[in-house]
Design brief:
The structure is a homodimer. Helices cover about 40% and strands about 25% of the residues of chain A. With about 425 residues, chain A is of the alpha/beta class. In chain A, α2 runs parallel beside α7, α3 crosses α4 and α11 runs parallel beside α16. Chain A starts with a strand and ends with a helix.
Chain lengths: ~425, ~425
């Protein structure tokens, strides 16, 4: 059984919106043992939508559509579906009631565009949408299932989780797919691939390995498909065990685990607190940490000391050190980390100071030069990096390295 | 002339990676007057890649591929292209030299996987890649152009900007496409669509309008296609002029303009500085502002006062106010904003305090309750919101509202 995704919307084809729906849907369907065959994005044109459905139907038994169901004129997915399934729009009182309930406290009055949401193709099963006004449509004909969902991510996700995936699971039993992803820090792709060449030969043939590089880190994805979940899972676990002696120090996480969540869990278990003293990372380190629910149990706060004055006033950095060594230096970043523990009242602190660019670099300290420090208030460990010449990437790599290395220092008992 | 994009990689179909390449490529091609017909994502399977190329070639004259060119075993795009164009891999000394130059300072030694990058299909034009090791391949046969680029965004972008788009432009003259996007704050989609119904009838038929909603804001995209650039552009400008009386107060930007960039430009022009005092937005406001190159000319810094102690110690909030009104209150957020101007030495400050969730809500102040304040050190303006029950969205909407409203207050001379 093959599943295809078709995302509909001019905004996708002119690049104004990045299609994040497909990746989310693929992940959730995978967990349920369903495999995506192809993802297609087409414009809000009737012919384009019809062609995409026809082609998908020729390859796959399940076709999931998102988008083109809004109340506005540019949304024509319903019309295309009526044409494909040779049916017509009819008024549905239940949907009308749902739209009214949903909009009651949200808009002043319900207009004709809202009311038109209650017009639905006659030849489909309607799935109600409690988080929006566009109903979900489930078509089933000669062994083909086509489901049309709104493109708004929250509405699509609600429909998938609560209705579409449970219904598909009830209808089909499938081969089982399992993935594990190992996060590896600071080894370039080709170097890692060579280190792992023997390992790749050693693991069972039904496991597939993929290298997914991104700035400063790499995700190694190990996938298995088969009939026996336990067999696949233990083969994957074995493969990971064999991986450890090869890249141990550089493994910093698994699957969807985020370094900031792992760091916070470690702090919770030790009943310790942390703070951030940021210069070049500009608040991103605090943002990553506070993105995790419950962060307030361990995160005291942060200072974004962009100006040198704030490095003195809020973090207690010695002004002569800045004059002597410059703000981007071992001396200053170490004082920032120790100062943060004291002034922000935390057990540990991470500090950053660097030249994010595009300007501000010198021959001695080019753009991308970053100092990071980690402290427990007494001891302080620091390290310099050069992350290259892209501002966005420098900020991201600084914040991530600060968090990943803090976690490693705590795990190893160095701090 | 139609252009299609095919993105290749198992990671796309299992949802581990969001395809951001296509959106970027579509935007850049649009600027050059080329229109994307369809975007397809397929796995690293030879049959899948071949089928996708065959189908795209039947609809379009230009097919752009990204991905599957890495040095590791899971990358098989080159093999598929050899099959499609009935050719074979040959060794290319120039690519070998490029790979050696590129890797010289990056890896200890150049391994066989790196060297294999110099094996390229005989029947194509090779475009050198100065920012990576995988060469770009340009195939041209019976009126069909197929270009294969690496999936790593920086490498793809470099190839597109410097080689692929200039070559395509030189080869084809096209119809002209223009887009303008108007950013609108705080009006739900269906309400706006009704407000603009007459306006949509009034604008020329060759202009197309799309509503692109996202949390708390909406982008209205006006597109025109034709032969005369000036005619399209002035029709779009006219349409925007007609829009102003209808939604003026709520327009907060155009096209790729980000609110944080507009705010900084406004501050630069007034020679004024700003700081942030964040509680529930957790550093994101500072991060958004410092993402803009040159931010340090107006951004003094920020405090992420997650614990109440830091609200007293770093921002000078009166501890009795927190006891009396709670940390999420008009009184506290106003003191945070005024305190930030003073303690962080800035002309203006934005402050946030709220309940991001998932826990911490009460009947009186449910999850999503957010107070924001804007101050010039003397005057202070504050406003409460409820952004709903999703932590990520609460953090984002708090940070964005803080920045957008600060910009509006400065533009209107209220602060």
């Amino acid at each position: 059984m093959q599943v295809e995704i078709i995302t509909i919307g001019d905004e996708l084809l002119i690049g104004q919106v990045v299609d994040t729906n497909s990746a989310w849907m693929a992940r959730e369907l995978n967990k349920a043992g369903m495999f995506i065959n192809r993802i297609t994005s087409v414009s809000d044109g009737e012919e384009e939508i019809l062609n995409a459905i026809r082609e998908a139907a020729s390859r796959s038994t399940i076709v999931l559509l998102t988008g083109g169901l809004g109340p506005t004129r540019d949304d024509i997915t319903k019309a295309a579906l009526c044409k494909y399934f040779k049916t017509q729009l009819v008024f549905n009182q239940q949907i009308m009631d749902d739209v009214e309930t949903f909009l009651k406290h949200r808009v002043g009055h319900i207009n004709q565009l809202n009311k038109d949401q209650a017009l639905v193709p006659e030849k489909c099963d309607i799935i109600r949408n409690p988080v929006g006004t566009a109903p979900i449509m489930w078509f089933e004909e000669s062994g083909l299932i086509v489901v049309s969902m709104p493109g708004v991510p929250t509405e699509m996700k609600h429909a998938m989780e609560n209705e579409v995936i449970p219904r598909l699971k009830a209808k089909f039993t499938n081969g089982i797919v399992r993935h594990r992803t190992v996060h590896i820090f600071n080894i370039p792709e080709a170097v890692l691939a060579e280190m792992l060449s023997d390992w790749e030969d050693q693991i069972p043939a039904f496991l597939k390995v993929a290298y997914l590089p991104s700035p400063g880190k790499l995700r190694l994805r190990i996938s298995g498909k088969g009939e026996n979940a336990q067999q696949i899972e233990s083969a994957i676990e074995n493969a990971i065990k064999l991986l450890y002696p090869l890249v141990k120090e550089n493994i910093f996480g698994f699957d969807d685990e985020k370094p900031e969540s792992s760091l916070l869990n470690l702090l919770f278990s030790k009943d310790k607190t942390i703070s951030c003293a940021e210069s070049c990372s500009g608040g991103l380190m605090s943002h990553l940490i506070t993105s995790v629910a419950g962060a307030s149990n361990a995160f005291m706060g942060g200072v974004v000391a962009y100006s040198n004055n704030l490095k003195y006033n809020l973090l207690g950095v010695d002004s002569t050190s800045i004059e002597k060594y410059g703000a981007v230096s071992r001396e200053v970043v170490e004082q920032m980390a120790k100062g943060a523990c004291k002034r922000l009242g935390s057990d540990y602190a991470i500090a950053s100071s660097g030249i994010a660019g595009p300007s501000g670099g010198t021959d001695e300290k080019p753009v991308g030069t970053v100092w990071l420090a980690w402290s427990d208030g007494e001891k302080v460990i620091s390290r310099s990096f050069n992350f290259g010449n892209n501002r966005e990437r420098n900020i991201l790599r600084t914040a991530e390295a600060g968090i990943i290395i803090m976690k490693q220092l705590l795990e190893r008992g160095t701090l």
